[in-house]
Amino acid sequence: MQRGPGRARSVVTIGTALALLGAGAATASAGSGGAGLAAPAPKRAAAPALEPVRGLPQLSASLGLRKVSRRAASAVTLRYASRAGGPLLVRVDVVRLADGLSVFQDQRLAQPGAAQAVRWSGRAGDGVALDGGYELRVSVGDAAASSRTSVSPGGAAPEGAPPPPGSASVGRFTFVGAVFPVRGEHGFGEEAARFGAGRGGRSHEGQDVMAACGTPLVAARGGVVTWRARHARAGNYLVIHDPITGQDHMYAHLRARALVKRGQRVETGQPIGVVGDTGSASACHLHFEVWTAPGWYKGGAPVDPLPALLRWDRVS
After folding, report:
1. Based on the domain organization, do 195 and 244 belong to the same domain?
2. Of all helices (H) and strands (E), which one includes residue 312?
3. Which of 78, 102, 141, 226 could bridge to 93 as Cys pair (CB 3.0-4.6 Å)?
4. Does 10 reside within a domain?
5. What digits encode the pLDDT tens for the residues 121-170?
6. What is the C-alpha separation between 260 and 254, in angstroms, rounded?
7. In this structure, are 206 and 160 located in the same domain?
């Protein structure tokens, strides 16, 4: 399809709710996300009280998870405060349980009593972390070490780096970087619904997911809304850019204008609208496209989204 010229004039914004887990708690295991450190969502549940970290009396902390299913989360926020009498060098590691390696670390100089927040939502190296189990570990050092150590508020850890000796666990969680966008009963249609199927002289650039009109839709991956408009063929549609992979995801035939607006940052699993049959649709369904970097009609190319959809369907 070609880019629609219209822009929506009114929006309904859905805030992202954080499901919070107390320090030391863990989720059950389950089976790609947003960026690394990012601004919190506009709406959040109240953060739990900070509790002493077992094994590190210099710190109090709480762990919050943004859950995308009963068993998995797409982001984690660690809040902590130093209980030491002076500046304290604090390092936070996100450790992959499968091999014990740190995929993300945040190191900063914490002043006594000053609230700190570290947020991780899936960045590992220059890509997205693998789905699976992870642990938040915290370690502390002498403030004098800051003169010899790089103090950086967040970033990917060197490949293969383990957490430092003497670190303490704050909690475990299961990370999933993407979720299936249709939150209800669905199917994948016949051959005509597939990527590359003929469309009267053109090719189908996405995969249709058949579902009843009104079935909730969520963002498969977090990112920034680059388009929210209406088109004669696509109906009400939305494009979300993933800043980690550079891919764009396009959602079409929504029953009404999307719940998020252009320029807004959305989280993995955040509600974006409901299934519809607007545009040239002959039945209620989501038309879903994946475009390679640099994105949708920006020099990227559409790729078959079915393998990713099937994978996300299994884990979410």
Report:
1. yes
2. helix 306-315
3. 102
4. no
5. 899 988 999 999 999 999 998 766 554 455 466 665 665 678 888 899 99
6. 12
7. no
The one-letter code for the residue type at 196 is G
* Omega prior to 302 cis, within 30 of 0: no
Domain extent, residue 83, equals 19-175
Residues 226 and 305 in one domain: yes
Residue 310, token pair as written in the block:
């099937």
Coil/strand/helix, residue 37: coil
Same domain assignment for residues 167 and 40: yes
Q: Which long-range contacts (CB under 8 A, 24 or more apart) does 183-191 make?
A: 183/215, 183/216, 183/217, 183/218, 184/211, 184/212, 184/215, 184/216, 184/275, 185/211, 185/212, 185/215, 186/210, 186/211, 186/215, 187/211, 188/306, 188/309, 189/285
The SS3 of residue 205 is: coil
Burial 77-94 (b: 16+ CB within 10 A, else e): bbbbbbbbeebbbbbbbb
158 & 235 share domain? no
- Please identify, among 151, 175, 199, the residue that sits at the C-terminal boundary of a domain: 175
| Structure confidence by residue, pLDDT tens digits, 252-311 | 999 999 999 999 999 999 999 999 999 999 999 999 999 999 999 999 999 999 999 999
Whether residue 228 is contained in a domain is answered as yes
Please return the burial class of 49, using the count of CB atoms within 10 Å of its CB with bins 0-12, 13-18 and 19+.
exposed
312 φ/ψ sector (left φ>0, alpha ψ -120 to 50, else beta): alpha
Whether 232 and 311 have beta carbons less than 8 Å apart is answered as: no
